[in-house]
Amino acid sequence: QDKKIFSVQGSYPVIRNLLRARGWVEKKFSNIIRVGARLGQQQDTQKLLEEEDEEGEEDSGDEQVGWGLHSSLWSPLSLPQSSMVRDKMPTFIWTSQCNAVNYRLLQGHQMVNHFAGIEAFITKAGLCVNLQNQPGFHQADPTTFFPRCYQLGAKDERQAFIEDFRLTAARSLLKLAVEKAGDMPGVMERPVKGAGESHVPQPMPPPAGPAPPSPPELLEGALQICRMQLDSLEHRDIDRGSPMLHITDADWDWILQEHYRMVQEQARLEPSVHQQEQCRALLQQLQARLPQLHVEGDHNLWIIKPGAKSRGRGITCSSRLEEVLELAGKCVAPSLQPGQWVVQKYVERPLLILGTKFDLRQWFLVTDWNPLTIWFYRDSYVRFCSRPFSLHHLHRSRHLCNVAIQKQWRLARGRHPKLPRDLIWSSQQFQLYLQRAGHAEAWEKLIVPGMKEAGVAALRSAQELVEARKGSFELYGADFMFGEDCQPWLLEINASPTLAPCSAVTRRLCAAVMRDTLCVVLDHRENPCCSTGAFDLIYKE
């Protein structure tokens, strides 16, 4: 009579138990014929449910383990109740697949945990495009929170990437010249230090022999290129034509090859004192125009990602232009869609903990797209790589923090002995580390505001493309990493983020975020004064 009937697709024992505790009755999802469909449409829609993706949640993979005594998908007590509601329509639907529901057939009173049209920001390609093309009135500058990104399958994007790669190499030569003077940690050894830690030099493969020094004109050419880029950024080149027209492809090939020698073969760069001063001054001017100049490093390393996959599948890194473009050629094969792959500038100077790379999973909840209403979860968790960070060793265990990848190397040799065994920290542990490392105010004044700004900007960029259905809501998992200055950088946003426990930390947090999600979408909807748990409303148009 109260229409408290719910259906769940996938392994969500916490959602089931929470709803049952509220007096709801479950209708088995397999009994639903394309939720909301009329009887005459049942036969046509049953096939969709039979072809349900076996992998479950979008970025969880096979991590759904260990819910303890409450992990049964279907309790005996629910069977007679299910029979009672066999001919009833569920009013609350929770699915692991965005396409498990025909949104057009839903009735107004039915709630579902997905929106249609979210591909605009939950795929790497979609996020890349929409952040670049967001309207100017949004004010947020994506270059301040989203590493530069290009679709390899689109001709204009491919050319823009080539130009960016070349300019980054030229800037890297200036940085190497400044590092030669000892002004900043250099390419040969990058010390990493945290609270209570000793300096940990990055491993450097021994050179095969002394590499000859780079020719003097190399640095002069890089200086000239960077001056022209600065003129372009400051619009002083309007009457001079395109500055890149004076540099041939052969010139660029020579500059890139010399840069490869500098980074990979330890070729020597021998700048004069005057050149070092010029490089330092020019980099300072560029820093004011290029927010990513510091974190982009000097290796010119880029990460190549499939545009619509998760859990780190298919990701590779390269610092050679020809390797990236070779992959780009494969992207436009007849069996693949153009733009299916993206290339993104790698954050070469990340904040490290115990000499190890990490990222942070942050939850956002959208309860309406018109007006756009965004909630931010106060608790989050950190995911570590299993081996020390190194730009000279590009193994996945050092660079990809996904749980599905790192679980293969959790007990590998070389990991820091103080890393947690399950490679997971709570955000409270992270905050404690920051305090001990001398960054006591970073969490409240830089990290949290930065994550909120990035999340809101990313969601706003796709607002016109998402179907703003009343009654729908959706929980998103955004992944961030941080520069050495603690500035957050958005990597991607996942729909159906994994809510299965892979550690003691995630067991507690995932159960809490599901509980609080129900508080927002069920209780707060009826009573705006009720508690929303750890969710804070951070944006409402």
Automatic annotation (TrEMBL):
Q: Where is the composition biased (Acidic residues)?
A: 50-62
Signal is among the record's keywords: no
Annotated InterPro entries: TTL/TTLL_fam, TTLL_monoglycylase
Annotated GO MF terms: ATP binding; protein-glycine ligase activity, initiating
- Enumerate the residue ranges of region (Disordered): 44-64, 193-216
Q: Which UniProt keywords apply?
A: ATP-binding, Cell projection, Cilium, Cytoplasm, Cytoskeleton, Flagellum, Ligase, Nucleotide-binding
SUPFAM superfamilies per UniProt: Glutathione synthetase ATP-binding domain-like (SSF56059)
Protein name per the record = TTLL3 monoglycylase
